Structures are given as structure tokens and as C-alpha cells.
């Protein structure tokens, strides 16, 4: 797999496509009304300008200064079933660029990675993939969260599992209150009810890490984890496991082996190539196929 670099570049906020004409036009006004962006009176002003100038509804609304181009993008996203959030909306981490800034260069790179994974891994009938980094600073958890969002935006029923039972991050990333999760399920203290839907994205669910156990490696190495993975694969199109850092112990190897495939994440100017090579070798020895690697810059 090629290794696109996800750089923290400024978004291209000026790029606005006001979409195909009539099918979209008929509902754009209604959606802007429903969201409180327009009042019935202001909508009439827009309709008058639209008729007088022969332009699209969204363009007329922007010209009148009644809505922003970001508002129009948001409505188009709803019309074309491509969910994303405006800044300040929902309780998600602002670092989830796929949720808040879907037209930025780094999210374009994420979509390119998604396409390669669809062709090289999921098209082969595989459903689960582990995401691994060498250290906590490599950005693999943030990458996994953003990758889960872009898969859900494609309409794939996506489950993100926080398999880091030492220092989990996904619960905080998605603004979910502390609750039971993977560890409790593996210990027989919970069931699949620990999975939470992410309200802002109808095709995205999260299984948090749960109660931090004293024996994470042993829990993840149990046969029950293999059975759990089979259950999850039968329910979801895409199951992504956010692994604990490779440097923290053998936890990552246990999960990757059960998932069957692993994508390695390295941080530009931070991760040592020798450490990535060592991780790839040990992942393969554990029974996981190394699907590819990506370089991130967060």
C-alpha cells in the first residue's frame, strides 16, 4: 500500500459546490428552515432573488447574507447522505477532522486510504482490521477514530473497538460517558449492550474499553476474544480495533492476531523505521497480515 501523509494543513473552506439543480433545490429551503438558518420571511426573500436572477436557492441565500457557505455545505451533506458536523456541534473531539472538516486535505488522504483498504482488504471478504502504532505519541488512536468516521460516511456499518485496556482514548474522543466496555465483556460481566451508537453518525458505533483491568494481556489473549470478533464481524461491515501501543507489551499482538489484519501507523519525524519494521515482523509472527502502513502528521 502506498503511504499517504496526513498533514495538519488548513482546510479549503472556499470550495463550495451548490450541487445538482432541481432535485436538491426543492429541499434545500426546507432543510434551512428546519435547521433554523432561515425564517419563512427570509426564505421568501431568497425565493424572490432566485427567481429574479435565475440562480440557485443556496447561492441566493448566501448573496443575501442570510446563511454562510458552511451552512450550504451542511445541507448538501444531508441531502446526499454524507454526514458531518459544524464546529461546536456535538460533544466530539475537535481533532476528529473527518467529522468537522471533511473537505480538508488530510481527510482527502483518509478517503484515499479507505479506498485502498476497501480494495486490498475488505473486498476479500474480511471485516476486521487492527490499527497499531509503536508508542502513544504516534497518533494511531486518532487515526483509527478518523478512519472509522470516513468508513461510516461511506454508508458502511462501522464499529470502532477501543482495545487499549491500559490507556484508552476513544471514549473521550467521541464524548461518551464512562461505562462498561470490551474488558467487562471479555470478563463475562457485560454483553454487547456495551456498544454505543455515535448519534451524529448513524452508521458508526463504538465499543469503549470499559473498566481498566489488572490483566489486560490475559483478557485479550482468551479464546473468548476470538468468539467475540466473529460475532462482531457478523453484525458490521467494518470492525476497526484501536490497539494499545506496541511498545506497551504483547496486548497489540493478541488483538491483531484475532482480527487477522493490521494497518501500521507511523508519525512523521517521530517514529523510528527500525521500530516499525520490528512491529511488522512480530505482527506477522502473531498471525496478523500486515495490510500496509501510513505516515501521519498531527
TrEMBL record:
GO molecular function annotation: kinase activity
Location of the region described as Disordered in the Swiss-Prot/TrEMBL record: 1-20
Taxonomy, superkingdom: Bacteria
Entry keyword set: ATP-binding, Kinase, Nucleotide-binding, Transferase
Gene3D superfamilies given in the database record: 1.10.40.70, P-loop containing nucleotide triphosphate hydrolases (3.40.50.300)
Gene this chain is encoded by: epsG
Transmembrane segments: none
NCBIfam families in the cross-refs: eps_fam, EpsG
Protein name: Chain length determinant protein tyrosine kinase EpsG
Native organism: Massilia consociata
Amino acid at each position: 500500500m502506498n503511504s499517504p501523509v496526513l498533514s495538519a494543513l488548513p482546510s479549503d473552506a472556499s470550495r463550495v459546490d451548490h450541487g445538482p439543480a432541481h432535485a436538491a433545490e426543492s429541499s434545500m429551503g426546507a432543510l434551512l428552515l428546519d435547521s433554523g438558518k432561515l425564517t419563512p420571511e427570509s426564505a421568501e426573500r431568497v425565493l424572490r432573488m432566485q427567481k429574479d436572477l435565475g440562480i440557485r436557492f443556496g447561492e441566493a441565500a448566501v448573496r443575501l447574507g442570510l446563511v454562510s457557505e458552511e451552512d450550504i455545505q451542511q445541507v448538501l451533506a444531508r441531502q446526499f447522505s454524507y454526514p458531518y458536523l459544524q464546529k461546536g456541534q456535538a460533544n466530539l473531539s475537535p481533532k476528529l477532522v473527518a467529522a468537522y472538516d471533511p473537505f480538508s486535505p488530510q481527510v482527502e488522504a483518509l478517503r484515499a486510504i479507505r479506498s485502498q483498504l476497501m480494495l486490498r482488504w475488505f473486498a476479500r471478504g474480511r471485516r476486521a482490521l487492527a490499527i497499531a502504532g509503536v508508542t502513544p505519541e504516534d497518533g494511531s488512536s486518532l487515526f483509527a477514530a478518523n478512519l472509522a468516521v470516513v468508513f461510516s460516511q461511506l454508508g458502511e456499518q462501522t464499529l470502532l473497538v477501543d482495545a487499549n485496556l491500559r490507556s484508552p482514548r476513544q471514549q473521550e474522543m467521541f464524548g461518551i460517558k464512562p461505562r462498561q466496555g470490551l474488558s467487562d465483556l471479555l470478563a463475562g460481566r457485560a454483553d454487547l449492550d456495551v456498544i454505543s451508537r455515535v448519534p451524529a453518525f448513524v452508521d458508526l458505533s463504538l465499543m469503549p474499553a470499559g473498566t481498566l483491568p489488572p490483566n489486560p494481556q490475559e483478557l485479550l489473549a482468551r479464546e473468548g476474544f476470538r468468539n467475540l470478533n466473529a460475532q462482531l464481524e457478523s453484525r458490521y461491515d467494518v470492525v476497526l480495533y484501536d490497539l494499545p501501543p506496541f511498545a506497551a507489551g504483547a496486548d497489540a499482538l493478541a488483538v491483531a492476531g484475532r482480527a487477522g489484519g493490521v494497518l501500521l501507523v507511523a508519525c512523521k519525524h517521530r517514529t523510528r523505521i527500525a521500530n516499525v519494521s520490528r512491529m511488522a515482523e512480530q505482527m506477522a509472527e502473531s498471525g496478523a497480515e500486515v495490510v500496509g502502513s501510513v505516515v501521519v502528521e498531527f
